[in-house]
């Protein structure tokens, strides 16, 4: 189902019958038409179904069958295997487009505010790694950041149209994703203004298609739920019991756990989260997929 040279795919198959409902990775699906991992090709959800609707449906399915029929692939920072080979920059519009083209179910994107409070896509505190410029995002205006080109490696990325690429705003990214792919916004520890982020999601008409990764802060999750109960929140947990902390928040259905748990400390955490009536989400990144092999 995946390109045979993509070792990460083997790790995904290990998880199909054991732990994960959603898996974030840097891999991409096979070019074969209508292929979905771990289940029927026709089982791929319509993006117009709200995430909370999807989550509730999957939870009910788990109660009935005790397992999952497929896993859902999340493109980490928009990355796909092909995108990495082509040096498409992380958190860029071309990376989002590639993830959609390759059939990912969701893109994971990082949000930070600039000095003039424009929400942009940027993982690091500085723009040094993914642009031709330098400096902290919080110390630069968006116009200043637009002076630089995005890159992955030494040289600016040049698209098929022969043009370089600029750092996108959150609004631009949401417009590219709308009704095409689900979105996981990583805002943990990034000083994102709550009200502004919620307004931009609402103005984009993406309330039902976005979930927010907020780390392990119950109070931050509650704050977002207070602003809009229809936006899914996506906390980090270290045990299935941690999930119950969020059970009064209707948007908290899907919980992420760290690589070290399923590698060593608690190999059963995925099953335990499922048994508790929630959905699980794990990362397959860097050396962890090789350890699983």
Most strands sheet: 9 strands, mixed
State the helicity in percent bands.
Answer: 25-40%
Molecular shape:
globular
How large is the radius of gyration? Answer: 18 Å
Order of helices and strands: HEHEHHEEHHEHEHEHEHHEH
The overall average pLDDT, rounded, is 84
User: What is the end-to-end distance?
Assistant: 17 Å
β-strand amount: 5-15%
Number of strands: 9
Question: Which structural class is indicated by helix and strand composition?
Answer: alpha/beta
Low-confidence stretches: 1-20, 28-42
Number of helices in the DSSP assignment: 12
Please supply descriptive tags for the structure shown above:
9-stranded mixed sheet, 293 residues, single chain, disordered N terminus, alpha/beta, 14% strand
Task: Outline the fold blueprint.
Blueprint: H1 8-16, E1 22-25, H2 51-65, E2 72-76, H3 81-85, H4 93-102, E3 106-113, E4 119-121, H5 142-145, H6 170-177, E5 182-186, H7 194-203, E6 210-213, H8 218-227, E7 232-234, H9 240-243, E8 254-257, H10 259-265, H11 269-275, E9 279-284, H12 288-292
Parallel strand pairs: 1-2, 1-9, 2-3, 3-5, 5-6, 6-7, 8-9
Antiparallel strand pairs: 3-4
Helix pairs in contact: 4-6
Structure, explained:
Helices cover 32% and strands 14% of the residues. It starts with 7 loop residues before the first helix and ends with a helix. By secondary structure, it is of the alpha/beta class. Strands 1, 2, 3, 4, 5, 6, 7, 8 and 9 form a nine-stranded mixed sheet that branches. The protein has twelve helices and nine strands. The protein is globular.
């Amino acid at each position: 189902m995946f390109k045979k040279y993509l070792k990460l795919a083997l790790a995904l198959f290990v998880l199909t019958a054991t732990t994960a409902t959603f898996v974030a990775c840097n891999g991409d699906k096979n070019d074969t038409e209508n292929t979905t991992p771990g289940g029927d090709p026709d089982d791929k959800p319509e993006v117009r179904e709200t995430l909370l609707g999807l989550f509730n449906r999957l939870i009910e399915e788990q109660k009935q069958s005790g397992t999952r029929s497929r896993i859902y692939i999340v493109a980490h920072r928009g990355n796909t295997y092909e995108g990495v080979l082509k040096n498409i920059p992380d958190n860029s519009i071309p990376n989002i487009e590639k993830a959609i083209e390759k059939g990912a179910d969701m893109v994971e994107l990082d949000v930070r505010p600039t000095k003039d409070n424009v929400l942009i896509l940027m993982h690091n505190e500085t723009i040094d790694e993914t642009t031709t410029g330098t400096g902290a995002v919080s110390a630069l205006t968006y116009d200043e950041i637009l002076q630089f080109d995005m890159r992955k490696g030494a040289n600016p990325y040049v698209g098929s149209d022969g043009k370089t690429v600029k750092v996108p705003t959150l609004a631009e990214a949401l417009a590219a994703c709308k009704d095409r792919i689900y979105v996981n916004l990583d805002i943990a520890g990034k000083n994102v203004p709550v009200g502004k982020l919620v307004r931009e999601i609402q103005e984009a008409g993406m309330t039902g298609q976005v979930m927010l990764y907020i780390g392990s802060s119950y109070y931050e999750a509650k704050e977002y739920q207070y602003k809009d109960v229809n936006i899914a929140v996506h906390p980090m947990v270290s045990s299935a019991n941690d999930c119950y902390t969020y059970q009064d928040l209707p948007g908290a259905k899907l919980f992420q756990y760290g690589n070290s748990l399923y590698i060593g400390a608690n190999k059963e955490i995925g099953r335990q989260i499922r048994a508790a009536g929630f959905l699980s989400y794990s990362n397959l990144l860097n050396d962890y997929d090789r350890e699983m092999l």
